[in-house]
Each structure stands twice: as structure tokens, then as C-alpha cells.
Design goal:
138 residues, alpha+beta, Adenine-n6-DNA-methyltransferase TaqI, Chain A, domain 2, three-stranded mixed sheet, globular
């Protein structure tokens, strides 16, 4: 359902970030947007995607062009004929995975997890309900 891509083509050359620049630099960790770059090449713009921290199993849904800071993540793309990217992201938040050891988790464990997969129309209804609930918390 999800294909992964190494982030190497999208890694920033410089960490001289500035809020005056346009392109966000992401990490899959808690900080998510760690700065903005003025680099005009190597921008990930085939969207949406999920970025997955290979060491912590943290993940983020991304629907805007970006660059990344490091190679310690996977960029995941859903086969939208089967699963909505946002549905895959929400489902990933519920997958249990022991991430206590310092190792890469995507290939060795996380990608092997099995989740229930309803038809696309049901995925859309589920996403709509999740978004309604999330709006109540905002």
C-alpha cells in the first residue's frame, strides 16, 4: 500500500535557515518544521506523502513542498487507488511497534504490520469524522 523513497535527493546543503525563505525543511520528529531554506532544487513536490522517522517511528502527513534535514527518514507514498494517504497516516498512528532500540524500523518491522483496509468511500467517511473530532480539539 505504501512505497518508500530514500530522502537523499531532498536533503538541504546548508542549514543556514531563515524565516524569510520559502521552502520548509522537515524532520519526522516532534519539531517537524525545523527551518526554511532558499534552495531551489531538490524540493519534494510530488504530494501528499508521509514522512517516517526510521529510528523513532514518528510520522507526519505532508501536503506541501519541502526539503529534509537528514536521511534518517523514509518518504512514504500511498497507492491512492487502494488507500488514501491521509487514511494511511491515521492508521499508522495506531500501529504498535516496539521502537525502544536504536535501529531502522521501516523495513524490519513497521512495513510488515497488517491493518484493516476498508473501501475508499469508507476511508473518506472515516477521515471526515476524524477531521470533525480534531476540529473540536482545536
Amino acid at each position: 500500500m505504501l512505497e518508500y523513497e530514500q530522502p537523499t535527493p531532498y536533503i538541504v546543503d546548508s542549514t543556514a535557515y531563515s524565516n524569510d525563505y520559502d521552502t520548509p525543511v522537515l524532520t519526522a520528529g516532534k519539531s517537524f518544521i525545523i527551518g526554511y531554506t532558499n534552495e531551489k532544487y531538490g524540493i519534494k513536490d510530488a504530494l501528499p506523502v508521509i514522512i517516517f522517522d526510521d529510528f523513532t517511528t514518528e510520522s507526519k502527513y505532508v501536503d506541501f513542498p519541502f526539503k529534509v534535514k537528514s536521511s534518517a527518514m523514509k518518504i512514504l507514498t500511498a497507492d491512492e487507488r487502494i488507500i488514501s494517504t491521509i487514511y494511511a497516516y491515521y492508521a499508522m498512528q495506531k500501529v504498535n511497534c516496539d521502537s525502544e532500540n536504536h535501529k531502522r524500523y521501516w523495513i524490519s518491522e513497521f512495513s510488515e504490520k497488517i491493518i484493516g483496509l476498508p473501501p475508499l468511500e469508507e476511508q473518506k467517511r472515516t477521515i471526515s469524522k476524524i477531521n470533525e473530532i480534531n476540529a473540536l480539539f482545536e
